[in-house]
């Protein structure tokens, strides 16, 4: 492989990894704190994308559309946690799974009703529609923007988790819910906050990713599998671990497409199976 | 006296003839009522991977049934439609249910070639006419021919052959690249294009295949070698078309002068042009239908379509195929006065029927049971302020290529 092609593929892998991070970070956070698998997470991603598209069409403002997409995700997260999830905390594992699966079906039909089944696509802003010249290697500016967005979201989340009081509370919740409650921390409120934050990132990713992935009914189920792969491979409890996992999966998928095209669609899932067999807690997860 | 008696005899005879005619008519009506409805089973993909396509086709055939008041030769047409969820196994179960439980006279089918190949053997065994009404595809649906199988749409290669020659001779492309997902429905089209393009004098310098359903195609675009004029991609399904085009534009291949020369799906007026607008200008495609085609039949079809469905989704190739398929079927039924129980007569009528298409000058069936129809080479242009497909050349009465023509070595079996 020529060096220029190798660099392009490396960037493709990193961009895909960052897209996976925007998709999976929220789910990883929710799973880490509450131990529930939220199958409606892909729906936040899709609805966020669609809402952003509607705002973009209405206002022509891409930045506003990003916030609208993220906010719609956060709102859905809030409604899910406040009115549905609270009723199943403490129950066995399959109730939250069934509940969020049902919710994802409802949100899928809701999207079909509101935005119809016609596949849509979001045009990136004009200044990101060109390619960047890196000494003869031309790479799409929008994919650079996705890499940047991923880095930015990671930095903000890291700062929130590690440097703020709220972050400390969340970490305390992840470590030991009972002890945190005993210390007077309002855990239900922390749960709501984390749910909103996770869904906010998903809604953000849904819109930011739409110039690459497009928007269509069924996108929710397409991406939830990848989000689950991120959680399974990365394990829970470490944000840098989540980022590293996403980059690993993005690069593996991309180079899989270069070296074994015929089986490339399996690359990520082969890694999932290997990790489950060798290190069931995930590459960066703590043993429970 | 003698004259008067002749007159009386004449009157009686006239009355007798009138009564006889009346009784024959009444008996026809009664017989038609007694015969019950013509049962048309439709095994189609209302959900799943190709549901968008099959639902468009359905919009087309529903439109024709509405136009004729669900009746042919004074006999009601009862459609019994089941969703096969784009699953081969379910499609076979649906076919069995339609034939053995619902006792349909005709087994209609939607889009998926793979399932059609499986079902046609069953239809042959059960001696039920099997009519593919949705999208076309794999050559094996009609080759080798089976008596009870008829495809009213098209086969792989029918459009790609004329396009392959046109790409070399008229568009001047010397070196091209083939791109598409790695499955028989795609490789058949790619291979047919390749053969005719190379026969004309061109050269395919690279073939890039990927697994069906890939989300990110950037790694495949990055593998393209720099020295080529244009890409012939086959991309199935609206979602994949959007992804391919968005990533093609994102990689700036259009600005690097790497042209697209493709099948109709990728340049349809109702979706990609609505989505990508002027970015689509200049793309060539081969099609069976063109929205802006100027013919009374197309005007009639589009008027009916918009009256029933509104203008939210523009009339399209798939709906036109559904409409034409049902029109063809009903024309054949009319020719045998609705007597669908006579399967031999129905099959003969299908082979003898010829209709005008929405755009095609005529549609008929070849000896193998595959449609013969006009194809159109078109280009996306901006005319009167509207970005749309414009027909550059009509390729009249194209037939299915011979058996084996679309089988890429090592693929497509």
Question: How is this structure best summarized?
Answer:
The complex is a heterodimer of chains A (288) and B (413). Chain A has 288 residues and is an all-alpha fold.
- Class based on secondary structure composition and strand pairing of chain A: mainly alpha
Tell me the major beta sheet of chain A.
Answer: 2 strands, antiparallel
Estimated radius of gyration of chain B: 24 Å
Note the beta-strand portion of chain B: 15-25%
Give me the Rg of chain A, rounded: 19 Å
Mean pLDDT figure of chain B: 90
Number of helices of chain A: 11
Total number of strands of chain B: 14
Largest sheet of chain B: 8 strands, mixed
Q: In terms of quaternary structure, what is this?
A: heterodimer
CATH topology of the largest domain in chain B: Rossmann fold
The run of helices and strands of chain B is: HEHEEHEHEEHEHEHEHEHEHHHEEE
How is this structure best described in words?
The complex is a heterodimer of chains A (288) and B (413). Chain A is an all-alpha fold and 288 residues long. Chain A has a single domain, classed as Orthogonal Bundle (ABC transporter involved in vitamin B12 uptake, BtuC). Helices cover 73% and strands 3% of the residues of chain A. In chain A, β1 and β2 form a beta hairpin. The longest helix of chain A is centred in the first third of the chain and has 32 residues, at 3-34. The radius of gyration of chain A is 19 Å and the shape is globular. The mean pLDDT of chain A is 90. Chain B is of the alpha/beta class and 413 residues long. Chain B has two domains: 38-154 and 294-369, Rossmann fold (3-Layer(aba) Sandwich), CATH 3.40.50.2300; 160-287 and 376-398, Rossmann fold. In chain B, 41% of the residues lie in helices and 20% in strands. Chain B has helices at residues 2-35, 51-67, 88-101, 113-126, 160-169, 184-200, 218-221, 238-250, 272-276, 296-309, 317-335, 343-352, and strands at residues 38-44, 71-72, 75-83, 106-109, 130-132, 149-151, 175-181, 203-210, 230-233, 259-263, 284-287, 364-365, 371-383, 386-398. In chain B, strands 7, 8, 9, 10, 11, 12, 13 and 14 form an eight-stranded mixed beta sheet that branches. In chain B, α9 links the parallel β10 (259-263) and β11 (284-287). Chain B is elongated. Chain B starts with a helix and ends in a 15-residue tail after the last strand. At the A-B interface, α1, α8 and α10 of A face β8, α7 and α8 of B.
């Amino acid at each position: 492989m020529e060096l220029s092609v190798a660099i392009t593929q490396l960037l493709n892998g990193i961009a895909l990894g960052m897209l996976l991070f925007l998709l999976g970070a929220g789910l990883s956070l929710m799973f880490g704190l509450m131990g529930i698998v939220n199958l409606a997470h892909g729906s936040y991603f899709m609805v966020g994308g669609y809402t952003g598209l509607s705002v973009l069409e209405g206002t022509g403002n891409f930045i506003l559309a990003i916030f609208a997409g993220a906010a719609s995700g956060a709102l859905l997260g809030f409604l899910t946690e406040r009115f549905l999830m609270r009723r199943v905390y403490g129950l066995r594992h399959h109730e939250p799974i069934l509940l969020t699966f049902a919710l994802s079906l409802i949100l899928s039909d809701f999207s079909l009703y509101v935005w119809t089944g016609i596949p849509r696509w979001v045009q990136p802003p004009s200044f990101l529609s060109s390619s960047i010249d890196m000494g003869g290697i031309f790479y799409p500016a929008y994919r650079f923007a996705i890499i940047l967005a991923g880095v930015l979201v990671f930095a903000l989340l890291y700062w929130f988790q590690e440097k703020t009081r709220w972050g400390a509370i969340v970490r305390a919740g992840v470590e030991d819910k009972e002890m945190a409650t005993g210390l007077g921390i309002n855990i239900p409120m922390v749960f709501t906050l984390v749910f909103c934050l996770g869904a906010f990132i998903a809604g953000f990713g849904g819109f930011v990713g739409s110039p690459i992935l497009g928007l269509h009914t069924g996108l929710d189920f397409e991406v939830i599998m990848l989000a689950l792969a991120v959680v399974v491979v990365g394990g829970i409890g470490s944000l840098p671990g989540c980022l590293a996992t996403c980059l690993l999966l993005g690069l593996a998928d991309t180079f899989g497409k270069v070296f074994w095209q015929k089986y490339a669609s399996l690359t990520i899932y082969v890694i999932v199976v290997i990790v489950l067999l060798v290190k069931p807690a995930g590459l960066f997860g703590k043993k429970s | 006296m003698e004259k008067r008696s002749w007159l009386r005899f004449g009157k009686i005879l006239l009355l007798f003839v009138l009564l006889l005619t009346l009784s024959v008519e009444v008996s026809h009506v009664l017989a038609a009522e007694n015969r019950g409805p013509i049962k048309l089973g439709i095994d189609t993909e209302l959900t799943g991977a190709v549901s968008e396509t099959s639902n468009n086709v359905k919009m087309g055939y529903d439109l024709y049934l509405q136009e004729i008041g669900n009746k042919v030769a004074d006999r009601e047409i009862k459609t019994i439609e089941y969703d096969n969820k784009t699953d081969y196994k379910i499609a076979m179960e649906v076919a069995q249910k339609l034939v053995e439980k619902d006792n349909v006279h005709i087994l209609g089918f939607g889009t998926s070639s793979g399932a059609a190949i499986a079902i046609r053997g069953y239809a042959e065994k059960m001696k039920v006419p099997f009519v593919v009404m949705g999208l076309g595809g794999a050559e094996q649906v009609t080759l080798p021919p089976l008596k009870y199988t008829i495809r009213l749409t098209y086969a792989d290669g029918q459009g790609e052959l004329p396009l392959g020659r046109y790409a070399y001779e008229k568009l001047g492309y010397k070196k091209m690249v083939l791109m598409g997902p790695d499955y028989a429905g795609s490789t058949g089209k790619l291979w047919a294009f390749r053969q005719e393009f190379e026969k004309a004098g061109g050269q395919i310098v690279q073939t890039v295949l990927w697994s069906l359903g890939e989300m990110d195609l950037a790694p495949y675009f990055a593998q393209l070698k720099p020295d080529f004029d244009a890409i012939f991609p086959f991309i199935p399904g609206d979602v994949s078309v959007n992804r391919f085009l968005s990533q093609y534009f994102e990689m700036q291949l259009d600005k690097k002068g790497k042209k697209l020369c493709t099948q109709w799906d990728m340049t349809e007026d109702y979706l990609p042009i609505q989505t990508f607008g002027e970015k689509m200008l200049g793309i060539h495609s081969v099609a069976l239908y063109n929205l802006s085609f100027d013919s009374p039949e197309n005007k009639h079809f589009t008027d009916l379509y918009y009256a029933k469905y509104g203008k939210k989704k523009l009339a399209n190739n798939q709906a036109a195929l559904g409409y034409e398929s049902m029109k063809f079927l009903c024309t054949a039924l009319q020719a045998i006065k609705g007597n669908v129980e006579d399967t031999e007569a129905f099959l003969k009528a299908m082979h003898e029927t010829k209709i005008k298409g929405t755009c095609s000058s005529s549609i008929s069936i070849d000896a193998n049971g595959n449609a013969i129809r006009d194809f159109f080479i078109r280009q996306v242009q901006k005319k009167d302020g509207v970005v749309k497909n414009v027909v550059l050349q009509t390729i009249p009465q194209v037939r299915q290529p011979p058996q084996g023509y679309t089988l890429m070595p090592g693929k497509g079996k």
